[in-house]
Amino acid sequence: MYQDVLLELLEVWKQDALCFELYDDPRVVLSTYIRAKMNHSRNRAHGSKVWAAEVMQGAPILKESLRDNLYEWAKLKESKIREWVESGQINPVEPSYLLYMIWASTQHYADFDYQIYLLNDDQPLDDLQFEKAVQSVTSVILRGIGLTA
Fold first, then answer.
1. What pLDDT, in 10s, does the model give residues 30-42?
2. Which of 5, 14, 81, 132 has CB atoms 3.0–4.6 Å from 95's, for a disulfide?
């Protein structure tokens, strides 16, 4: 059952990344992807925490499934990013590092939600604050690769 929960979460995150196949414009793809990841961090924080715990332990339950599911999926996303670099649409960046940065930035809002709560005067981010967070993460990522938000 635990493995099924983790694999279902991976499928949800894969759905978030369909924008890599649907659009060619890196601004549209990355803005859409970041927003989807942030929304899941807000609405399904526990799932991200369970995923993080599994991976931090060396993925004892998912090890083989990750090799089959995550590796090829990530390589396809990296390929798209590499195309953007080669065509001059974005500044040179190592595609895997860009993905790691997006995952770290967006999932922070789930994995460390208590820290955000604490630093936000013991309140969860309200809708306006959350929207500003999405826009901030998006803007920093996009500007880092030479795009405007």
1. 999 999 999 999 9
2. 81
